[in-house]
Amino acid sequence: MDPKKLKCDFPILNRKDAIIYLDNGATTHKPIQVIQAVSTFYEKYNSNVHRGLSELGENATTLYEGARKKIAEFINAESEEIIFTKGTTEGINFVASAWGFDNVAVGDQIIITNVEHHSNILPWQRLAKRSGAELKFIRLNPETFFLKIDVPDLINEKTKIVAITHRSNVLSDVWESSDQLKKLIKSAHNVGAKVLIDAAQSVPHEKIDVKDLDVDFLTFSGHKMLGPTGVGVLYIKKELHEKLEPYQLGGSMVYLVMEEKFEWKEAPFKYEAGTPPIAQAIGLDCAVEYINNNVDYKQLKDHESSLCQNLIENLQKIDDVNIYGNLERLKKNGHLVSLSVDGIHAHDLCSYLSSKKIVVRAGHHCAQPLAYALGIKSSLRVSFYLYNTHQDVENFLKEFRGAVNFFK
C-alpha cells in the first residue's frame, strides 16, 4: 500500500492548491473511481429498482443488488442481512424504533457507554423515556482510557439490548481487548439480550466479521470509507427477520396492500421502503472494490498507527498540550488523535489551521458525555486514512506550532 500513489486517485487532494486533509473521522474523500461510478449510473442506467421491466430498470436493479452482495461479503454477512440506510445514524434509529418499541418495556434495561456518539445515545434515551426502561452506562476509566466493565453487575435478566461503539470517534480504541468485547456480547446473549455495534469508525480501518463478533445488529456509513454521502449499511442477523417489523412503510416493501390488510415482502426488501439510495449504494460498491484492490488491513493499521505515533511524540514536545486516549494503544492501533492546548480554544486552533489549508475537526465531536467525563468542553481531532502521509503530519505540526505561538 503506497499512500502517495493512492492520493493520486483523489481529485480534491491533487489540485495545485491542495489541502492537507486530516478530518477523515468525519468523512473521507472519494477516489475518481467512485465519482465516475456514480456519474456513470446517472448517465447510462438511471432508473428506479425492483419496479420496472425496462432494460434501464433491470440494469439498475442488477447494479444495486450487486452492491448489496459485495458489501455482504465485505463483512461476512448474507445478502439478505444487508439493509441500505442513509448512514449509521439511521441504522441505530431503525433498531431503537422498530425493534426497541416492541421489545423494551417498563423495568427493562438498555446498556450503552458514556463514550458514544450522540447518534448512539439519543435514540436510546428516547426509547427509555417512552418505554419506562432504565438506561445504564458502561463508563470510561479516565486513567487508562478504556471502558470499565463488571459483567455480573451489568448484565442481568432485565437487560434487553446492549448498544455500543466498536471504536470511539474521539479516543479510537476504548476496549482493552477484542476478548473483552466478545465476553460482553456473549454475556448479553446468555440472558437473551440483543447487541448492536456502531462500527462507523472501525469498518473503514479494520476487517470486520459479523459472524465472528456474533452481533445482532451492526451499522456503518459509506462516506467514512471512500463512498458517497447519504448511504449506510445496517446488518440485521437473519434469525431476527421474522420478528422485526420495518422501520418505515411505503412502496416496494410489500407484496400486497388492500383496504383491510397488507403483507410484507421478505428481508431485505421489507426494510427498504420507497426509493432507496441507488446511486449511493453503487458508489459504495465501488468504494468497497477500491478498498479490496488497494488496501491490506494490516498495512493500513501499521501506516495509520505510525502517523499517530509521529504526531503524538512531537505533540508531547510542545508545552501545554493535552492528548486524550491511551497513548500506547494509539501508537500501535490508532487512526486519530484528539488534543487540547491550555488557554487556547480548539475552535481558534481549527480556524487558524484552516487558513493554512489544513483541515481538522474541533468541538465535542457529538460526544458531549465523553467530553464531560474528560473534563473538557472541546478538543482538536486529527484523523487519518489511507491517503495520508508523514509529510501531512509534518505540515500539520509546523502550522500547529505556529498557531500555538500566535495565540499564546
Tell me what you see in this structure:
- The structure is a single chain.
- This protein has helices at 3-7, 32-45, 55-74, 88-103, 122-131, 151-154, 178-190, 210-213, 278-294, 297-315, 327-333, 346-355, 368-374, 390-407, and strands at residues 20-21, 82-85, 109-113, 134-141, 146-148, 159-165, 194-198, 217-221, 232-236, 254-257, 262-264, 321-324, 336-341, 358-359, 361-363, 379-383.
- With 408 residues, it is of the alpha/beta class.
- The protein has an eight-stranded mixed sheet with strand order 2-9-8-7-6-3-4-5, with helices on both faces. A four-stranded antiparallel sheet has the order 12-13-16-15, with helices on one face.
- Helix 4 runs parallel beside helix 5 and helix 10 (297-315) packs antiparallel against helix 11.
- The longest helix is centred in the first third of the chain and has 20 residues, at 55-74.
- The chain is globular and about 70 Å long.
- The two termini are 40 Å apart.
- The mean pLDDT is 95.
